[in-house]
Amino acid sequence: MRFDAVPMPPTVEGRPRDERGYPVPAITPWEGDEPRFALTDYARSADCARERRCSVCDVLIPRGPVWRVVGAAESAAIGEALAAGRPYRNLTPTLEGPGHRACMLYASMVCPYLARPNARRGLGAERPDDLTSHVVRGAARGSLGAVVGFADYEFAVTADQVLFRFLDPVEFLPHDTADAHLDELRAELAARRG
Ligand SMILES: [Zn+2]
Fold first, then answer.
1. What pTM value is reported for the model?
2. How far is the CA of 67 from the centre of ligand 1 (A)?
3. Cα 178 to ligand 1 centre (Å)
């Protein structure tokens, strides 16, 4: 969706913008005046991980669950685990850090690089599409991916990557269309405004 057709969380409004007015996520590297949306900045990602800041808006994530956008393969795997009552944790770490619920609902609709793990360059650590392709073929819902809340996450800052693992899904919001979470986002923003 066009980013200006989606209500923007207040914490995202303060982000720097590119020349189109598109808000630049906290973990996006810059080359001069140009944000590189397809990439994840090592130092920015490490700072967010260590200080529990949202990878989209750069603001502290309160104690409690964290959210991220997952791609089709991981969405299918989580959906199947939840349906079967099995615990789920992603076995391969990801470079995608956690964020606020509102920020991830927003990002799932406006960010072309989220929810497509192989869209980012240098993603040697994450290959869920290979691992779970057999699951995807049977998935009826969430063909594009999902916004997922997790009870907790772990991270490791290696010499050249920041890797995340997410544990214990507490909310599962699959999407089949780009605008699937508009109502959920509006409700979340209204609730935050009190
Ligand atoms: Zn945020």
1. 0.84
2. 10
3. 20
